Amino acid sequence: MALTILGLQFAIAIFEAVLDFRNLTRLDTILLTLDLIDMVLIANLIVMVALSGYQLFIVGVGYPSDPEHKTFRFDEAAGPLKFRIATTIVLISTIHMLHAYLGEKPLEPSMIVQLAVFQTLFILTAVVLAVIHRILPRRNLSDRPEGDEGEDEDARTGD
């Protein structure tokens, strides 16, 4: 449902821009482009969470009757997902901050400080998640279930 609403908003924004093409200034075009990129990033975030959730909680558990029964390795699969989500949120926040800065209304100093604090918190969260993922101990190949010996970390996480 959220993707449908975002898709409609995206189409409406483009349609309105085409209709008002001659009146668009350079700044209006930049702000429209930032809005469109923002909508795409949010849609990607929704898809990423939905697909990763399916992979982690449905496919990752597997079925006991399945001969290639997979075990649930949440600690290995969730780390990269958390980092990707945090990175996407940082990008979305950056776009909002840039949009506010370039907007037609001048920002009050308190609003600039608020935006900078939130942006810094988002960046620190992404950095902490990356550091935690790097320093957590990795499982040895002997700890993996049968059939996973040839699979390396990058192939599983998509990095």
Automatic annotation (TrEMBL):
Family membership: Belongs to the UPF0114 family.
Membrane-crossing segments per the record: 41-63, 83-102, 114-136
InterPro entries named among the record's database cross-references: UPF0114 (IPR005134), UPF0114_bac (IPR020761)
Highest rank taxon of the organism: Bacteria
Primary subcellular site in the record, as a coarse category: membrane
Pfam families: UPF0114 (PF03350)
Cellular component, GO, one term: plasma membrane
Source organism of the structure: Caenispirillum salinarum AK4
KW Transmembrane (keyword) present: yes
Membrane topology: Multi-pass membrane protein
Record keywords, A-Z: Cell membrane, Membrane, Transmembrane, Transmembrane helix
Protein's UniProt name: Uncharacterized protein
Presence of keyword Transmembrane helix: yes
Subcellular location(s) of the protein: Cell membrane
